[in-house]
Design goal:
about 200 residues; Arc Repressor Mutant, subunit A; Rna Polymerase Sigma Factor, Chain: A; mainly alpha
């Protein structure tokens, strides 16, 4: 489960006038969730910063229409963020860079092992960024944010069966990219995703 929690909005009732303090609280509590999701989708820190601002402008404009009975605020924020990122990428049609520079040195292991792990993480990130936007979205929501299938479906507004089929196709694609076509059927990439996304 993510570390940000999943609290309901304390000061804003559905369809009420927007409370400035409540919005500030929401921003402070969930800015990391929005930034990380945007960063994983877009692969660039400057674009993720821009997405953070734009998503919260959208949140501010639609906060009065948020209905906690339809789902948790994190689900709503994931949906807005993913939709913004998909639209942003479609508009820009740009090539993305790797997600982030991996830490090369860790104090508790030899430098060689640290370099190998960093290279593996970089390879997994490149493979994820090469997925289609739809496949990348389900992988990020399922394995990075550890959302259950039904919540991924709710965020993306698609049936659970579609979530499962996109994840299956994405995992097969990642297997082919990461281990090659001859041995892809023998190696499962799920453990790498759970640890390395």
């Amino acid at each position: 489960m993510n570390s940000l929690g999943d609290k309901r909005l304390p000061h804003v009732a559905p369809r009420s006038k927007i409370d400035q303090d409540a919005f500030a609280d929401i921003f402070e509590q969930y800015k990391r969730l929005v930034y990380k999701t945007a960063y994983l989708m877009l692969g660039d820190s400057a674009e993720a910063d821009e997405a953070l601002q734009e998503v919260f402008v959208l949140v501010y404009k639609s906060l009065a229409s948020y209905d906690p009975h339809k789902g948790a605020i994190t689900t709503w924020l994931h949906r807005i963020t993913i939709n913004y990122c998909l639209g942003h990428r479609r508009k820009r049609q740009i090539l993305t860079e790797p997600l982030e520079e991996a830490r090369l040195v860790q104090l508790d292991e030899p430098i060689e092992a640290s370099l190998v792990k960093a290279a593996e993480r970089q390879e997994v990130r490149r493979a994820i960024m090469a997925l289609s936007e739809k496949q990348r979205a389900v992988i990020i929501l399922r394995y990075y944010w550890e959302l259950p299938y039904n919540e991924v479906a709710q965020v993306l507004a698609i049936p659970v069966g579609t979530v499962k089929s996109r994840i299956d196709l994405a995992l097969k694609t990642l297997s082919l990219k990461l281990v090659g076509p001859k041995i892809a059927h023998r190696k499962d990439v799920r453990p790498a995703l759970e640890c390395e996304v």
